[in-house]
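Subject: Interface between my chains keeps coming out wrong

I've been trying for a while to get a sensible model of this assembly. When I model each chain on its own everything looks fine, but I need the whole thing in one frame so I can look at the contacts. Pasting all components below, labels as-is. Any help appreciated, I'm running out of ideas.
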Amino acid sequence: MKPAPFAYTKARSVEHAVELAGRDGEARILAGGQSLIATLNMRLSRPTLLVDINGLDGLDGLALKDGAVEIGALVRHAQAGRSDIIAKNAPLIAKAIPHIGHPAIRNRGTIGGSIAFADPAAELPACLVALGGEVVIAGGRGERTVKADDFFTGLFETELGSDDVLKAIRVPAANAATRIGFAELARRHGDYALVGLAAAARAEGDGLADIRLAYFGVGATPVRARKAEAELARGALDDAVAALADDLDPPDDVQETGAVKRHLAGVLLRRVAKQLMEGRQ
Amino acid sequence: MPHSRNIALTVNGERYEREVEVRLMLADFLRHHLGLTGTHLGCEHGVCGACTILLDGRSARSCLLLAVQCDGHDVMTVEGIAPSADALHPLQEAFRDHHGLQCGFCTPGMLTTLIEFLRENPDPTEEEVRIAISGNLCRCTGYQGIVAAALDAAKRMQAAPA
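Reply #2:
Try treating it as a single job with all components included. I did that and got this:
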């Protein structure tokens, strides 16, 4: 018995989950539990109430709606990985999923949980930012939508308040001009990345436009490399790699120094730029 | 008991009803309440893979699941893999024949992970096997015997489907 004592309630609806979370300031939403329960076991987290949303209707849908792919919060990583809708319309997410943990983790872990937990070294938050997606949130004052660029506010910090429940994410559906790239460097397959890069762009003439480069593992949140994006849009790959010196300032961590991470970010940019260009017809 | 619940679930085909504290992990429930000590606990935070079981047929870490979350569900542990008390599953036979274990601590998680993997990938490559077990740590074998056993088990299972 590792976790400190807590009360446990299975929510009957999203509204019920919002109400329960709002009533108890130390409540946590339990989805896949692949991060939350580990922190409970280590007593890094001591909520007084767990609100279990597993099995709630309407949170495990996966659909193409109005030019966007909507992924319900409770869609498991493995389910998304097997989905034809994702493979066809959100290929960046399809490409990222095999890098998330291991099969047993992906069977339980949820898309909503990854986004809400907002681990700065995780794949999906960066994909959401690269795709310019948005997050649908149910809260005490009703439903609202927050753009990915505004959602991640700090280390494990997001726009989610204590009585908010993440309902779904939306990303623009891919079309013939969409180009995506993804690469990460990790010590072992399934580990959190030392550095990773999720990227999306639009093919235009001989080049790329609307390039969005979202790095993970280099700061407190997914980090857009905006100067590198501008250089890459000019077709200047070497200048884009050089611009990372301004865009990124990765802190040292237990795995690598910031200087090594910045170097690896350049290595990844060359790989991902190749993927973005190769996808062109 | 404070914060306790009644749960009913199926483990290895047998139905159990128990009262459990809500903070009890499935792994501890299996080991201490049901006496099914084949499921091993290593890191207890989802990294080592030793506690992997099958929940409704899909692999999951039993250290990252509350027992109450398994109410109404079907669990299979390493004890449920062999077809009978005096026969081994082809995957277990292959582990024995290829020295796929030394101390045996990681073995329950390796077997449950590979049961699901081989069901979905009946004819895997060596690289696919290595990625499949990348979430299961073994500190004895260097993985060579485990990979050889998994590849041989795939052949045996294709030759004689269960």
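Reply #3:
Confirming on my end. The first helix of chain A runs from residue 14 to 23.
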